[in-house]
Amino acid sequence: MSYIQKTITGDEKIINFFKIHLIFYILNILWIPKFIGLFFTEYGLTTKRVILKIGIISRNTDEMRLSKIETVEVRQGIFGRIFGFGSVLVTGTGNSSVVLSGVSNPMSVKKEIDSHLD
Prior knowledge:
Elements: H1 3-6, E1 14-18, H2 22-27, H3 32-39, E2 42-46, E3 49-54, E4 60-65, E5 69-75, H4 78-83, E6 85-92, E7 97-104, H5 106-115
Antiparallel strand pairs: 1-2, 2-3, 3-4, 5-6, 6-7
């Protein structure tokens, strides 16, 4: 069971899991710890939060309530545009942010998050 599934509360439901683009697995295949770490990275959207979880033994999470989101930005370089990957920067009130790095089809991730904002 994934971290996101374990942390669902009450009437909260999972809307979508976002995937890391295949190119990041290929680029990190020789750097074993990073390569293995990609399999234990989760990006998700629920009816209440945007969630990022990284880690195998230790765990680092970033979460932002949908009600606190101010902007959702896409960051893509030229190779990201060509191959369909990028980062989605979710900025909230105050100084908070969640960065979903290396996601496949970042424009659809942005649209998905935007469609669930108040």
